[in-house]
Amino acid sequence: MPVGTHATVKTQSPDELEATGARLILANTYHLMLRPGAELIAELGGARSFMAWPHALLTDSGGYQVFSLAKLCKIDDDGAVFRSHLDGVKHALTPERAMQVQALLGSDIAMVLDECPPGGAPRADIERAMRRTSAWARRCLASERPEGQARFGIVQGGTFEDLRIAHLEDIAALDCEGVALGGFSVGEPSAEMYRVLASLGPQMPRQRPRYLMGVGKPADLLHAVSAGIDMFDACCRHATRATVRR
Question: Mind telling me the catalytic residues?
Answer without folding.
Answer: 60, 233
